[in-house]
Amino acid sequence: MARIAWRSGLLAGGCLILTAGAPARADTLRDALVSAYQTNPTLESARAQQRATDEGVPIARAAGLPSLSTTETYTKNLKQSENSLTAPSKIFTADAQLGVPIYSGGAVRNRVKAAKLRVGAGQADLRGTEASVFSQVVAAYMDVIRTEAIAGLNRKNVAVLQTNLDATNDRFQIGNLTRTDVAQSQSRLATAKSDLLTAEANLAAARETYIRFVGHAPEALDAPPPLPNLPANASEAATIALDANPDIIAARERSKAADKDIDVAGASRLPTLRLFGQGTYNNYFNTLARGAVNASVAQSDSSAQAGAQLSIPIFQGGLPAAQRRQAQATASATLEQEIATERDVIAQVRSAFTSYVASNDLIRSSQVAVDAATLSLEGVKAENSVGRRTILDILNAEQELLNAQVTLVTARRNAYVAGFSLLAAMGKAEARDLGLDGGTLYDPDVNYERVRGKFFDWDDDDAPVARSTRTVDTPVQDGNIPASQEP
Protein backbone atom coordinates (compact mmCIF):
# COMPACT_ATOMS: atom_id res chain seq x y z
CA MET A 1 0.00 0.00 0.00
CA ALA A 2 2.89 2.36 0.76
CA ARG A 3 4.39 1.70 -2.66
CA ILE A 4 1.01 2.48 -4.24
CA ALA A 5 0.83 5.72 -2.27
CA TRP A 6 4.26 6.76 -3.53
CA ARG A 7 3.33 5.85 -7.08
CA SER A 8 0.06 7.76 -6.96
CA GLY A 9 1.87 10.75 -5.54
CA LEU A 10 4.40 10.69 -8.34
CA LEU A 11 1.74 10.11 -10.95
CA ALA A 12 0.00 13.26 -9.81
CA GLY A 13 2.56 15.19 -11.81
CA GLY A 14 1.64 13.32 -14.99
CA CYS A 15 2.32 9.80 -16.23
CA LEU A 16 5.46 9.27 -18.26
CA ILE A 17 6.28 6.21 -20.30
CA LEU A 18 9.91 5.08 -20.01
CA THR A 19 11.10 5.47 -23.57
CA ALA A 20 14.43 6.19 -25.16
CA GLY A 21 13.25 9.54 -26.47
CA ALA A 22 14.01 12.96 -25.04
CA PRO A 23 12.54 13.47 -21.56
CA ALA A 24 9.64 15.80 -21.02
CA ARG A 25 9.94 18.95 -18.92
CA ALA A 26 10.89 17.85 -15.42
CA ASP A 27 8.49 19.67 -13.12
CA THR A 28 7.78 16.79 -10.74
CA LEU A 29 10.05 14.51 -8.79
CA ARG A 30 8.85 11.56 -10.85
CA ASP A 31 9.87 13.33 -14.05
CA ALA A 32 13.32 14.02 -12.65
CA LEU A 33 13.77 10.40 -11.55
CA VAL A 34 12.60 9.05 -14.89
CA SER A 35 14.96 11.37 -16.76
CA ALA A 36 17.89 10.27 -14.61
CA TYR A 37 16.89 6.62 -15.01
CA GLN A 38 17.04 6.99 -18.77
CA THR A 39 20.00 9.32 -19.30
CA ASN A 40 22.31 9.46 -16.26
CA PRO A 41 25.88 8.46 -17.29
CA THR A 42 26.76 6.97 -13.91
CA LEU A 43 23.81 4.60 -14.15
CA GLU A 44 24.49 3.78 -17.80
CA SER A 45 28.13 3.08 -16.98
CA ALA A 46 27.11 0.73 -14.16
CA ARG A 47 24.79 -1.15 -16.52
CA ALA A 48 27.58 -1.53 -19.08
CA GLN A 49 29.97 -2.72 -16.37
CA GLN A 50 27.43 -5.31 -15.32
CA ARG A 51 27.17 -6.55 -18.89
CA ALA A 52 30.95 -6.99 -18.80
CA THR A 53 30.61 -8.96 -15.55
CA ASP A 54 28.01 -11.20 -17.21
CA GLU A 55 30.65 -12.34 -19.68
CA GLY A 56 32.62 -13.90 -16.86
CA VAL A 57 30.33 -16.94 -16.98
CA PRO A 58 30.90 -17.91 -20.65
CA ILE A 59 34.58 -17.06 -20.22
CA ALA A 60 34.84 -19.46 -17.28
CA ARG A 61 32.82 -22.16 -19.08
CA ALA A 62 34.98 -21.93 -22.24
CA ALA A 63 37.83 -23.84 -20.55
CA GLY A 64 35.57 -26.88 -20.23
CA LEU A 65 34.35 -26.93 -23.83
CA PRO A 66 36.01 -28.67 -26.81
CA SER A 67 38.57 -26.70 -28.79
CA LEU A 68 39.39 -27.07 -32.47
CA SER A 69 42.18 -25.41 -34.41
CA THR A 70 43.97 -25.82 -37.72
CA THR A 71 47.41 -24.79 -38.91
CA GLU A 72 48.31 -24.45 -42.62
CA THR A 73 51.90 -24.05 -43.78
CA TYR A 74 53.34 -23.59 -47.28
CA THR A 75 57.11 -24.03 -47.67
CA LYS A 76 59.35 -23.52 -50.74
CA ASN A 77 62.94 -24.62 -50.49
CA LEU A 78 64.98 -21.97 -52.29
CA LYS A 79 68.21 -23.98 -52.14
CA GLN A 80 68.62 -27.64 -51.28
CA SER A 81 71.64 -29.73 -50.54
CA GLU A 82 73.28 -31.24 -53.63
CA ASN A 83 73.16 -34.62 -51.91
CA SER A 84 69.43 -34.41 -51.28
CA LEU A 85 67.76 -36.53 -53.93
CA THR A 86 64.31 -37.04 -52.39
CA ALA A 87 63.48 -33.87 -50.46
CA PRO A 88 60.62 -31.90 -52.07
CA SER A 89 61.16 -28.33 -53.17
CA LYS A 90 57.59 -27.32 -52.28
CA ILE A 91 55.28 -28.58 -49.56
CA PHE A 92 51.90 -27.62 -48.16
CA THR A 93 50.97 -28.95 -44.71
CA ALA A 94 47.61 -28.76 -42.95
CA ASP A 95 47.25 -29.84 -39.32
CA ALA A 96 44.00 -30.06 -37.34
CA GLN A 97 43.83 -30.50 -33.56
CA LEU A 98 40.75 -31.33 -31.49
CA GLY A 99 40.79 -31.32 -27.70
CA VAL A 100 37.94 -32.37 -25.41
CA PRO A 101 38.41 -31.72 -21.66
CA ILE A 102 36.98 -34.52 -19.53
CA TYR A 103 38.17 -33.70 -16.03
CA SER A 104 40.04 -30.67 -14.74
CA GLY A 105 40.07 -31.26 -11.01
CA GLY A 106 36.93 -29.21 -10.54
CA ALA A 107 38.58 -25.97 -11.68
CA VAL A 108 36.12 -25.22 -14.48
CA ARG A 109 33.06 -26.13 -12.43
CA ASN A 110 34.08 -23.94 -9.50
CA ARG A 111 35.22 -21.12 -11.78
CA VAL A 112 31.77 -21.05 -13.36
CA LYS A 113 30.09 -21.06 -9.94
CA ALA A 114 32.29 -18.15 -8.82
CA ALA A 115 31.47 -16.23 -12.00
CA LYS A 116 27.74 -16.73 -11.45
CA LEU A 117 28.05 -15.50 -7.87
CA ARG A 118 29.91 -12.42 -9.10
CA VAL A 119 27.10 -11.78 -11.57
CA GLY A 120 24.72 -11.74 -8.60
CA ALA A 121 27.06 -9.39 -6.73
CA GLY A 122 27.26 -7.13 -9.76
CA GLN A 123 23.50 -6.99 -10.07
CA ALA A 124 23.30 -5.97 -6.42
CA ASP A 125 25.94 -3.29 -7.10
CA LEU A 126 23.80 -2.04 -9.96
CA ARG A 127 20.84 -1.77 -7.60
CA GLY A 128 23.04 0.20 -5.22
CA THR A 129 24.15 2.55 -7.98
CA GLU A 130 20.54 3.08 -9.01
CA ALA A 131 19.54 3.94 -5.43
CA SER A 132 22.57 6.23 -5.08
CA VAL A 133 21.74 8.11 -8.29
CA PHE A 134 18.12 8.48 -7.20
CA SER A 135 19.26 9.80 -3.81
CA GLN A 136 21.41 12.38 -5.59
CA VAL A 137 18.48 13.36 -7.81
CA VAL A 138 16.18 13.75 -4.80
CA ALA A 139 18.79 15.86 -2.99
CA ALA A 140 19.33 18.01 -6.10
CA TYR A 141 15.56 18.40 -6.59
CA MET A 142 15.02 19.43 -2.98
CA ASP A 143 18.04 21.74 -3.07
CA VAL A 144 16.54 23.63 -6.00
CA ILE A 145 13.23 23.98 -4.15
CA ARG A 146 15.01 25.09 -0.97
CA THR A 147 17.35 27.58 -2.62
CA GLU A 148 14.51 29.02 -4.69
CA ALA A 149 12.50 29.53 -1.52
CA ILE A 150 15.45 31.08 0.32
CA ALA A 151 16.24 33.37 -2.62
CA GLY A 152 12.58 34.38 -2.77
CA LEU A 153 12.49 35.09 0.96
CA ASN A 154 15.65 37.19 0.72
CA ARG A 155 14.28 39.08 -2.26
CA LYS A 156 11.08 39.79 -0.35
CA ASN A 157 13.15 40.88 2.62
CA VAL A 158 15.10 43.32 0.45
CA ALA A 159 11.84 44.80 -0.84
CA VAL A 160 10.47 45.13 2.71
CA LEU A 161 13.68 46.75 3.98
CA GLN A 162 13.74 49.10 1.00
CA THR A 163 10.19 50.20 1.81
CA ASN A 164 11.18 50.53 5.46
CA LEU A 165 14.18 52.69 4.54
CA ASP A 166 12.00 54.93 2.38
CA ALA A 167 9.53 55.36 5.23
CA THR A 168 12.36 56.00 7.68
CA ASN A 169 13.80 58.72 5.41
CA ASP A 170 10.38 60.36 5.14
CA ARG A 171 9.98 60.41 8.92
CA PHE A 172 13.52 61.69 9.32
CA GLN A 173 12.74 64.57 6.98
CA ILE A 174 9.91 65.71 9.20
CA GLY A 175 11.97 65.23 12.34
CA ASN A 176 10.13 62.18 13.62
CA LEU A 177 13.27 59.95 13.56
CA THR A 178 16.99 60.44 13.94
CA ARG A 179 19.92 59.90 11.62
CA THR A 180 20.69 56.76 13.64
CA ASP A 181 17.37 55.24 12.62
CA VAL A 182 18.14 55.93 8.96
CA ALA A 183 21.66 54.45 9.28
CA GLN A 184 20.27 51.31 10.93
CA SER A 185 17.79 50.85 8.09
CA GLN A 186 20.51 51.42 5.48
CA SER A 187 22.80 48.87 7.15
CA ARG A 188 20.11 46.19 7.29
CA LEU A 189 19.19 46.81 3.66
CA ALA A 190 22.82 46.52 2.52
CA THR A 191 23.20 43.27 4.48
CA ALA A 192 19.96 41.92 3.00
CA LYS A 193 21.16 42.69 -0.52
CA SER A 194 24.40 40.81 0.18
CA ASP A 195 22.40 37.86 1.52
CA LEU A 196 20.25 37.95 -1.62
CA LEU A 197 23.32 37.78 -3.86
CA THR A 198 24.58 34.78 -1.89
CA ALA A 199 21.17 33.10 -2.11
CA GLU A 200 21.00 33.66 -5.86
CA ALA A 201 24.50 32.21 -6.31
CA ASN A 202 23.48 29.17 -4.26
CA LEU A 203 20.36 28.80 -6.40
CA ALA A 204 22.40 28.88 -9.61
CA ALA A 205 24.74 26.24 -8.17
CA ALA A 206 21.79 24.05 -7.13
CA ARG A 207 20.32 24.27 -10.62
CA GLU A 208 23.65 23.29 -12.18
CA THR A 209 23.84 20.29 -9.85
CA TYR A 210 20.32 19.35 -10.92
CA ILE A 211 21.43 19.46 -14.57
CA ARG A 212 24.40 17.25 -13.71
CA PHE A 213 22.23 14.45 -12.32
CA VAL A 214 18.97 14.84 -14.26
CA GLY A 215 20.36 15.91 -17.63
CA HIS A 216 18.47 19.14 -18.24
CA ALA A 217 17.63 22.40 -16.51
CA PRO A 218 14.87 22.44 -13.87
CA GLU A 219 11.58 24.07 -14.61
CA ALA A 220 9.01 25.06 -11.99
CA LEU A 221 9.33 22.18 -9.53
CA ASP A 222 6.29 20.82 -7.74
CA ALA A 223 6.38 19.80 -4.11
CA PRO A 224 7.44 16.14 -3.79
CA PRO A 225 4.94 13.44 -2.78
CA PRO A 226 5.02 11.85 0.68
CA LEU A 227 7.65 9.17 1.18
CA PRO A 228 6.27 5.63 1.41
CA ASN A 229 7.09 2.63 3.55
CA LEU A 230 9.10 4.46 6.21
CA PRO A 231 9.86 2.32 9.28
CA ALA A 232 8.50 2.98 12.73
CA ASN A 233 11.92 2.90 14.38
CA ALA A 234 15.62 2.48 13.67
CA SER A 235 15.64 -1.20 14.66
CA GLU A 236 12.96 -2.04 12.13
CA ALA A 237 14.88 -0.11 9.47
CA ALA A 238 18.10 -1.99 10.26
CA THR A 239 16.34 -5.36 10.11
CA ILE A 240 14.95 -4.57 6.66
CA ALA A 241 18.33 -3.27 5.47
CA LEU A 242 20.13 -6.47 6.51
CA ASP A 243 17.91 -8.41 4.12
CA ALA A 244 17.45 -5.93 1.28
CA ASN A 245 20.38 -3.51 1.17
CA PRO A 246 22.20 -4.08 -2.16
CA ASP A 247 25.65 -3.38 -0.74
CA ILE A 248 25.23 -6.11 1.87
CA ILE A 249 23.88 -8.53 -0.74
CA ALA A 250 26.83 -7.81 -3.04
CA ALA A 251 29.32 -8.34 -0.21
CA ARG A 252 27.73 -11.68 0.67
CA GLU A 253 27.86 -12.88 -2.93
CA ARG A 254 31.51 -11.88 -3.22
CA SER A 255 32.31 -13.86 -0.08
CA LYS A 256 30.70 -16.95 -1.62
CA ALA A 257 32.59 -16.40 -4.89
CA ALA A 258 35.89 -16.07 -3.03
CA ASP A 259 35.17 -19.39 -1.31
CA LYS A 260 34.82 -21.02 -4.74
CA ASP A 261 38.13 -19.45 -5.76
CA ILE A 262 39.80 -21.57 -3.07
CA ASP A 263 38.64 -24.74 -4.81
CA VAL A 264 39.76 -23.36 -8.16
CA ALA A 265 43.25 -22.71 -6.81
CA GLY A 266 43.49 -26.18 -5.30
CA ALA A 267 42.42 -27.91 -8.51
CA SER A 268 45.88 -27.46 -10.04
CA ARG A 269 47.13 -30.25 -7.73
CA LEU A 270 44.68 -32.78 -9.16
CA PRO A 271 44.94 -34.91 -12.32
CA THR A 272 43.42 -33.73 -15.58
CA LEU A 273 42.04 -35.87 -18.36
CA ARG A 274 41.40 -34.86 -21.94
CA LEU A 275 40.63 -36.58 -25.23
CA PHE A 276 42.45 -35.46 -28.32
CA GLY A 277 42.45 -36.00 -32.03
CA GLN A 278 44.91 -34.80 -34.65
CA GLY A 279 45.12 -35.04 -38.43
CA THR A 280 47.83 -33.98 -40.88
CA TYR A 281 47.76 -33.58 -44.66
CA ASN A 282 50.88 -32.97 -46.82
CA ASN A 283 51.03 -32.04 -50.53
CA TYR A 284 54.45 -31.94 -52.27
CA PHE A 285 53.32 -30.52 -55.63
CA ASN A 286 55.08 -33.34 -57.58
CA THR A 287 58.48 -32.35 -56.18
CA LEU A 288 59.02 -35.28 -53.84
CA ALA A 289 61.91 -37.66 -54.74
CA ARG A 290 62.70 -35.65 -57.85
CA GLY A 291 66.22 -37.07 -58.16
CA ALA A 292 65.48 -40.70 -57.43
CA VAL A 293 65.86 -43.22 -60.24
CA ASN A 294 62.76 -45.21 -61.15
CA ALA A 295 61.03 -43.75 -58.10
CA SER A 296 57.30 -43.99 -57.80
CA VAL A 297 56.35 -41.91 -54.76
CA ALA A 298 52.96 -40.52 -53.73
CA GLN A 299 52.98 -36.72 -53.94
CA SER A 300 50.57 -36.30 -51.05
CA ASP A 301 49.93 -38.09 -47.79
CA SER A 302 47.83 -37.81 -44.65
CA SER A 303 47.75 -39.16 -41.13
CA ALA A 304 45.45 -39.08 -38.11
CA GLN A 305 45.76 -39.85 -34.42
CA ALA A 306 43.33 -39.98 -31.50
CA GLY A 307 43.78 -40.78 -27.86
CA ALA A 308 43.40 -39.78 -24.25
CA GLN A 309 45.84 -37.76 -22.21
CA LEU A 310 46.06 -38.03 -18.42
CA SER A 311 48.21 -35.48 -16.63
CA ILE A 312 49.15 -36.12 -13.00
CA PRO A 313 51.00 -33.29 -11.22
CA ILE A 314 53.84 -34.58 -9.05
CA PHE A 315 55.74 -31.48 -7.97
CA GLN A 316 55.19 -27.84 -8.98
CA GLY A 317 57.52 -26.02 -6.64
CA GLY A 318 54.79 -25.27 -4.11
CA LEU A 319 52.80 -23.16 -6.56
CA PRO A 320 49.38 -24.84 -6.00
CA ALA A 321 49.66 -24.55 -2.22
CA ALA A 322 50.68 -20.90 -2.45
CA GLN A 323 47.78 -20.16 -4.77
CA ARG A 324 45.34 -21.90 -2.45
CA ARG A 325 46.67 -20.04 0.61
CA GLN A 326 46.40 -16.81 -1.34
CA ALA A 327 42.78 -17.59 -2.24
CA GLN A 328 42.04 -18.43 1.40
CA ALA A 329 43.48 -15.11 2.54
CA THR A 330 41.44 -13.30 -0.11
CA ALA A 331 38.31 -15.13 1.05
CA SER A 332 39.09 -14.12 4.63
CA ALA A 333 39.37 -10.50 3.48
CA THR A 334 35.97 -10.66 1.75
CA LEU A 335 34.38 -12.01 4.93
CA GLU A 336 35.77 -9.04 6.85
CA GLN A 337 34.62 -6.68 4.11
CA GLU A 338 31.15 -8.18 4.40
CA ILE A 339 31.07 -7.32 8.10
CA ALA A 340 32.46 -3.84 7.38
CA THR A 341 29.73 -3.28 4.80
CA GLU A 342 27.13 -4.48 7.26
CA ARG A 343 28.46 -2.07 9.90
CA ASP A 344 28.43 0.79 7.42
CA VAL A 345 24.85 0.10 6.36
CA ILE A 346 23.61 -0.17 9.94
CA ALA A 347 25.28 3.16 10.73
CA GLN A 348 23.74 4.73 7.63
CA VAL A 349 20.27 3.46 8.49
CA ARG A 350 20.38 4.57 12.09
CA SER A 351 21.89 7.94 11.21
CA ALA A 352 19.35 8.56 8.45
CA PHE A 353 16.46 7.61 10.73
CA THR A 354 17.72 9.89 13.48
CA SER A 355 18.22 12.72 11.01
CA TYR A 356 14.74 12.16 9.59
CA VAL A 357 13.10 12.27 13.02
CA ALA A 358 15.15 15.30 14.09
CA SER A 359 14.31 17.17 10.89
CA ASN A 360 10.61 16.52 11.36
CA ASP A 361 10.84 17.76 14.94
CA LEU A 362 12.67 20.82 13.62
CA ILE A 363 9.90 21.38 11.07
CA ARG A 364 7.31 21.51 13.84
CA SER A 365 9.35 23.82 16.03
CA SER A 366 10.31 26.02 13.09
CA GLN A 367 6.66 26.35 12.08
CA VAL A 368 5.89 27.52 15.62
CA ALA A 369 8.81 29.96 15.35
CA VAL A 370 7.55 31.32 12.01
CA ASP A 371 4.03 31.80 13.36
CA ALA A 372 5.34 33.48 16.49
CA ALA A 373 7.80 35.69 14.58
CA THR A 374 5.01 36.76 12.18
CA LEU A 375 2.79 37.73 15.10
CA SER A 376 5.71 39.43 16.83
CA LEU A 377 6.51 41.53 13.75
CA GLU A 378 2.93 42.67 13.46
CA GLY A 379 2.93 43.64 17.15
CA VAL A 380 6.23 45.50 16.94
CA LYS A 381 5.01 47.48 13.94
CA ALA A 382 1.81 48.38 15.77
CA GLU A 383 3.72 49.41 18.89
CA ASN A 384 6.15 51.46 16.79
CA SER A 385 3.26 53.42 15.34
CA VAL A 386 2.41 54.65 18.85
CA GLY A 387 6.02 55.30 19.82
CA ARG A 388 6.59 52.27 22.05
CA ARG A 389 9.03 50.50 19.70
CA THR A 390 12.03 51.75 17.72
CA ILE A 391 13.00 51.18 14.11
CA LEU A 392 15.69 48.80 15.34
CA ASP A 393 12.99 46.69 17.01
CA ILE A 394 11.19 46.40 13.68
CA LEU A 395 14.41 45.47 11.88
CA ASN A 396 15.21 42.81 14.45
CA ALA A 397 11.70 41.36 14.25
CA GLU A 398 11.91 41.18 10.47
CA GLN A 399 15.30 39.44 10.67
CA GLU A 400 13.95 36.93 13.19
CA LEU A 401 11.06 36.11 10.88
CA LEU A 402 13.40 35.65 7.92
CA ASN A 403 15.69 33.39 9.94
CA ALA A 404 12.75 31.27 11.10
CA GLN A 405 11.42 30.96 7.55
CA VAL A 406 14.84 29.89 6.21
CA THR A 407 15.20 27.34 9.01
CA LEU A 408 11.75 25.93 8.19
CA VAL A 409 12.52 25.62 4.48
CA THR A 410 15.86 23.94 5.22
CA ALA A 411 14.29 21.54 7.72
CA ARG A 412 11.71 20.45 5.15
CA ARG A 413 14.46 19.76 2.64
CA ASN A 414 16.59 17.88 5.17
CA ALA A 415 13.66 15.76 6.34
CA TYR A 416 12.78 14.63 2.83
CA VAL A 417 16.38 13.91 1.83
CA ALA A 418 17.00 12.02 5.08
CA GLY A 419 13.82 10.01 4.58
CA PHE A 420 14.80 9.06 1.05
CA SER A 421 18.34 8.22 2.17
CA LEU A 422 16.78 5.96 4.78
CA LEU A 423 14.76 4.17 2.09
CA ALA A 424 17.91 3.81 -0.02
CA ALA A 425 19.87 2.30 2.87
CA MET A 426 16.98 -0.12 3.45
CA GLY A 427 17.14 -1.21 -0.20
CA LYS A 428 13.74 0.34 -0.99
CA ALA A 429 14.67 3.25 -3.26
CA GLU A 430 15.00 1.71 -6.72
CA ALA A 431 12.88 2.09 -9.85
CA ARG A 432 10.82 -0.98 -8.99
CA ASP A 433 10.03 0.52 -5.57
CA LEU A 434 9.26 4.05 -6.76
CA GLY A 435 6.59 3.25 -9.32
CA LEU A 436 8.73 4.17 -12.33
CA ASP A 437 7.36 1.18 -14.23
CA GLY A 438 5.31 3.12 -16.74
CA GLY A 439 7.32 1.23 -19.37
CA THR A 440 10.08 -1.34 -19.59
CA LEU A 441 12.57 -1.09 -16.74
CA TYR A 442 16.17 -2.13 -17.24
CA ASP A 443 16.54 -5.77 -16.24
CA PRO A 444 20.15 -7.01 -15.95
CA ASP A 445 18.94 -10.61 -16.11
CA VAL A 446 17.96 -10.11 -19.75
CA ASN A 447 21.57 -9.62 -20.86
CA TYR A 448 22.84 -12.36 -18.56
CA GLU A 449 20.42 -14.91 -19.99
CA ARG A 450 21.37 -13.74 -23.48
CA VAL A 451 25.11 -14.33 -23.08
CA ARG A 452 25.46 -17.08 -20.46
CA GLY A 453 25.20 -19.92 -23.00
CA LYS A 454 27.04 -18.35 -25.93
CA PHE A 455 30.03 -20.25 -27.31
CA PHE A 456 30.46 -19.12 -30.93
CA ASP A 457 33.78 -17.29 -31.40
CA TRP A 458 32.34 -14.65 -33.75
CA ASP A 459 29.17 -13.82 -31.84
CA ASP A 460 30.00 -10.14 -31.19
CA ASP A 461 27.76 -7.32 -30.02
CA ASP A 462 27.36 -4.01 -31.81
CA ALA A 463 30.04 -1.37 -31.39
CA PRO A 464 29.62 0.57 -28.12
CA VAL A 465 27.83 3.92 -28.25
CA ALA A 466 27.12 6.44 -25.50
CA ARG A 467 23.54 6.27 -24.23
CA SER A 468 23.47 9.11 -21.70
CA THR A 469 22.77 12.69 -22.70
CA ARG A 470 25.31 15.51 -22.73
CA THR A 471 24.67 18.80 -20.95
CA VAL A 472 27.07 21.11 -22.82
CA ASP A 473 24.15 22.74 -24.62
CA THR A 474 22.10 23.50 -21.50
CA PRO A 475 21.86 27.21 -20.64
CA VAL A 476 24.03 28.65 -17.89
CA GLN A 477 21.88 28.88 -14.77
CA ASP A 478 21.31 32.00 -12.68
CA GLY A 479 19.52 32.91 -9.47
CA ASN A 480 16.47 34.51 -11.05
CA ILE A 481 13.08 33.38 -9.82
CA PRO A 482 9.87 33.83 -11.81
CA ALA A 483 7.49 36.16 -10.05
CA SER A 484 4.92 33.36 -9.79
CA GLN A 485 7.33 31.30 -7.67
CA GLU A 486 8.22 33.98 -5.15
CA PRO A 487 6.78 33.48 -1.66
TrEMBL record:
Residues 460-487 are annotated as: Disordered. Keywords: Cell outer membrane, Membrane, Signal, Transmembrane, Transmembrane beta strand, Transport. It comes from the Bacteria. One of its GO terms (cellular component) is cell outer membrane. Transmembrane segments: none annotated. Residues 1-26 form the signal peptide. GO terms for molecular function: efflux transmembrane transporter activity; porin activity. It is found in: Cell outer membrane. Pfam families: OEP. The keyword Transmembrane applies. SUPFAM superfamilies: Outer membrane efflux proteins (OEP). Its main location: membrane. Belongs to the outer membrane factor (OMF) (TC 1.B.17) family. This is Uncharacterized protein.
